[in-house]
Amino acid sequence: MSKLKQALDSGTFALTAEIAPPKGFDFTRQLYLANLLKDKVHAVNVTDFQSASLKASSLGLCIMLKQAGIEPVFQITGRDRSRMAIQGDMLSAAAFGIKNILALTGDHTTVGDCKDSKPVFDLDSVGILKAARMLESGQDCGGNALNGESPEFYLGACVTPEYDPVELQIIKMKKKAMAGAAFFQTQGLYDIESFKRFMDYASKIECKVLAGIIPLKSAGMAKFMNRSVPGIRVPDSLIERLKNSSEPVKEGILIAAEFISKIKEQGICDGAHIMAIGAEENVPLILEAAGL
Amino acid sequence: MIISQKKPDEEILSYLEGAKKVVLVGCGECATVCKTGGEEELENMKAFLASHGIEVVGSIYPQSACNKLLMKKELKALKDVLPECDAVVSLSCGDGTQTIASLIDKCVYPANNTMFLGEVERQGIFTEACRLCSDCVLAYTGGICPITKCAKSLINGPCGGSVDGKCEVNHDNPCAWIEIYNKLNKLGQLDKLEKMYEPKGYKDTAYPRVINLREEKHDE
């Protein structure tokens, strides 16, 4: 059974972090990072050609993590694979005991580093969740029966609380939950009051929510994200804090830790998902600072 | 309407390497509106080729280059010059070019790139409107096509990629799903957004497709 599911179902404040496969086939750093996170988080997400940039595939690193005793969350986007390839990868994942799947639309190929690649999008995130459910019911996408046992997954999806109009985001979140998403990991969050307002809507949907945390490294990074990353809104007060700090990376760690502590203490959601984007070594420091 | 764009001059010239005499074929429909295959463009092409030592020995301006029967008739006007020409240059869309190529034993070269099925916003401005997916969803989306207007052809709502209501792929384009949401909201039909849409099926879009309205008659 998925440890992440166990944690969330039992009401434990769940923690996940995210790592990306390498652009190459040396997984040494990824395994080092995963081992660093091993006893600190319930599961480790492995991104699927994050930012539409070519890397080793998510499934490969998920298998390696699993073999190293670390629970992976297998991220699957609809960008690069047809429904057949997606279900095939899900079955392979099941063969290695991988339970957690996070279904995502995926960034468009034209924003990545292999721009001429064909954008597939045969399935949207809702379709990916349904494809997993179909396998669980013993059928493939063509309605054909699977041989042997049916796989069991713990399905998740993402949501962007700062999306405008938020009603539209909630409608899609509901659909994802109906399609099988039991947990949601959010886009990076910085404004607790705004997140609370989002949770007023989201808490009506039967699912668990892990707040997305992207530790800030500098005021410049915060401004860049406000400008360029969809669904991110870093308040000016935090940008000022980073600007005035002599050690902005440490300040960023503190900001992330404070956010996690608050959502945990106030019971705003069910856990936190840390996306450190290249600074995964800092995840244990954030958790330590958050008293976790 | 089939929206076409003229190919670069050098590309057209590269097809015609060694050719001395050519025939031009325009199109009186879409390519005329797109200013890629009208009478003016035929004249321009003639002058351009002449400036590169290629003589245009004949040209036709059919009402519609993609109508095979019509083209068969129109090509008769070229019966004296076709045998002596080295190539035919088609100033129509890819469909018209293939129609012409299927009717004559000459090299037929495209002068245009066929871009998309779109609408004429105003003169000279064309926007893609339909991906010809054959299973129209417009009834559920307020008349805005998510297959075409959403860069990812999503069918159950938006991705998280829009910034200020603009698409992540092209910031000049509005997010189709925000437009659909606003339209359905205005129409009092937001419930249509709540419905779960199944992934589109592709078995009926295996190409090339044929529609034969005379099939029953044919079978008799």
Summarize the helices and strands and which ones pair or pack.
The complex is a heterodimer of chains A (292) and B (220).
Chain A (H helix, E strand, L loop, with lengths): L2 H7 L4 E6 L8 H10 L5 E4 L11 H10 L4 E6 L5 H13 L4 E5 L20 H12 L17 E6 L6 H14 L3 E6 L3 H11 L5 E6 L5 H10 L7 H9 L3 H18 L5 E4 L8 H7 L3
Parallel strand pairs in A: 1-2, 1-8, 2-3, 3-4, 4-5, 5-6, 6-7, 7-8
Helix pairs in contact in A: 4-5, 5-6, 8-9, 9-10, 10-11
Chain B lengths: L1 E5 L2 H7 L5 E5 L4 H4 L5 H12 L4 E6 L7 H8 L11 E4 L3 H10 L4 E3 L1 E11 L2 E6 L15 H4 L26 H12 L3 H4 L20 H5 L1
Parallel strand pairs in B: 2-3, 2-4, 4-5
Antiparallel strand pairs in B: 1-6, 6-7
CATH superfamily of the largest domain in chain B: Response regulator
Model regions low in confidence, pLDDT < 50 over at least 5 residues of chain B: none
* Helix segment tally of chain A: 11
Q: Using the coordinates shown, work out and report the CATH topology of chain A.
A: TIM Barrel
Q: Which ranges of chain A are low-confidence, i.e. pLDDT below 50, for 5 or more consecutive residues?
A: none
Notes on the protein architecture:
The complex is a heterodimer of chains A (292) and B (220). Chain A has an 8-stranded parallel β-barrel with strand order 1-2-3-4-5-6-7-8, surrounded by 7 helices. By secondary structure, chain A is α/β, with parallel strands linked by helices. Chain A has a single domain (3-289), classed as TIM Barrel, CATH 3.20.20.220. Chain A starts with a helix and ends with a helix. Helices cover 41% and strands 15% of the residues of chain A. Chain B has 220 residues and is of the alpha/beta class. Chain B folds into 2 domains: 2-115, Rossmann fold; 132-205, no CATH class. Chain B has a 4-stranded parallel β-sheet with strand order 3-2-4-5, with helices on both faces. In chain B, strands 1-6-7 form a 3-stranded antiparallel β-sheet. The radius of gyration of chain B is 22 Å and the shape is elongated. Classes of the chains: A alpha/beta (292), B alpha/beta (220). At the A-B interface, helix 5 and helix 6 of A face helix 7 of B.
